[in-house]
Amino acid sequence: MEVILNDYHKKVNAEMRATVAFWKAHPQSRTESLRRLKLLREQRLASQSNS
Fold it and tell me: What is the pLDDT of residues 27-36, one digit of tens each?
């Protein structure tokens, strides 16, 4: 079975490849990664408590 990608899938795949390429070129330190995860958790908790 042949896989057929429409324009949406091609766009999403291109964006994902660009993101992966960026982070390979700009790796984060462990402390920066942990800081970002903490910020995301706080944002998620704030949005869940508002709904």
Answer: 999 999 999 9
